[in-house]
Amino acid sequence: YELLSGLVGSEVCIRDRLFGGVPKGLESGTHLRGDINILLVGDPSTGKSQLLRNVIGIAPLAISTTGRGSTGVGLTAAVIIDKDSGERHLDAGAMVLGDKGLVCIDEFDKMNEIDRVAIHEVMEQQTVTIAKAGIYASLN
To answer: Torsion angle of alpha carbons 136, 62, 126, 79, nearest 10°?
Structure first.
């Protein structure tokens, strides 16, 4: 833990995320998700990326990507057309593949604003709604 010295608050948040919260259903019918979203912000070279790499190494299900190389479609789902049959199907993105696990997006600030908006539904509602190329689906 010498590499992570000084990041005690971040370590506690990540530990809590790894073990997760508990979803609750209220008598009124409202569902409260138990997932915890974390945003690490700090100066360059303070160990944020290294911390994410270490967490990815110990998490049972973890998907890693970068803001620079990610698109909204790559994070949620893409419609793929089969060359031979012409049929369309959904190809899961990072947020779908990381369901019930951990999705780490490094360099989030480098992500395009439009692509950043695509993950709001996933983070808030725990679903991905697709309405593309004649396919309408809700993945949860």
So the answer is: -10
